[in-house]
Design brief:
This protein is an alpha+beta fold. Helices cover 38% and strands 31% of the residues. It has one domain. A six-stranded antiparallel beta sheet has the order 3-2-1-4-5-6. The relative contact order is 0.16.
Length: 176
C-alpha cells in the first residue's frame, strides 16, 4: 500500500506477510504475485475434493485461482494480523504457515532494495523475484532467485532481524 502519494509502496515485509497468511489459510500453492497500481494480483493452485484415504480413486482436483487484493483489503489484512499477533503467545511465529514466513522474508529483502514495483513467482518453495528499480538512466528490472534453502535460511534468521526493526507503533530499538 502506498504511504505517500506517488511514492513506491512501503513496508513490503508486513504487506506480504499478511498476504502470505491469507494464502496459507486457502492452502494455495505455486504462487505468482504481481503488483498493480491499486493492490496486488495473486494467482496459484488450490486443491479441492481431496479424499483423506491414501488409496482413494478420487485424488481431488487442482484449479488455478486468481485473487485481487486492493489496497483497502491489504490494510484490513494487516490490521487483523497485528491484532492477532498482539493476542498471540510467544511461539506464534513457529505456528505461522510457509507463505506467511516466506513472503515476510522476501518483503524484508524488497524493503532493503526499495523497488518501484514488484513481481515474483514460486515453484516448489523457490522464488524468482523481479523488481523495478530506479537508476540514473531511468528504470530497469532486476531479477533475483532464491532457492528453497535460501528462503529457509532467511526464515531462520528472521527472529534475530526482527529485533533490529521497529514494529508498527513502536520506536526503533536504541543503538548499543
Amino acid at each position: 500500500m502506498r504511504i505517500y502519494e506517488g511514492s513506491p509502496r512501503q513496508d513490503f515485509e508486513e504487506v506480504f506477510r499478511s498476504i502470505g497468511a491469507f494464502l496459507d489459510q486457502r492452502a494455495m500453492k505455486e504462487v505468482l504475485l504481481a503488483e498493480a497500481p491499486d493492490g496486488f494480483i495473486v494467482q496459484g493452485l488450490v486443491s479441492s475434493g481431496v479424499d483423506a484415504g491414501a488409496w482413494s480413486e478420487s485424488m481431488g482436483t487442482q484449479t488455478k485461482e486468481t485473487l485481487t487484493f486492493l489496497d483497502d483489503d491489504i490494510a484490513r489484512f494487516m490490521d487483523e494480523a497485528l491484532a492477532r499477533r498482539n493476542h498471540a503467545v510467544a511461539d506464534d511465529w513457529a505456528k505461522a504457515g510457509y507463505y506467511e514466513k516466506a513472503f515476510r522474508v522476501l518483503g524484508r529483502y524488497m524493503d532493503e532494495q526499495k523497488p518501484r514495483d514488484t513481481f515474483f513467482f514460486e515453484q516448489d518453495g523457490a522464488f524468482v523475484v523481479r523488481l523495478l528499480m530506479a537508476s540514473p538512466t531511468g528504470s530497469r528490472h532486476v531479477l533475483s532467485e532464491f532457492t528453497r534453502e535460501d528462503i529457509d535460511a532467511m526464515i531462520a534468521q528472521g527472529p534475530a532481524l526482527r529485533d533490529t526493526k521497529a514494529r508498527p507503533g513502536q520506536a526503533a530499538p536504541a543503538e548499543k
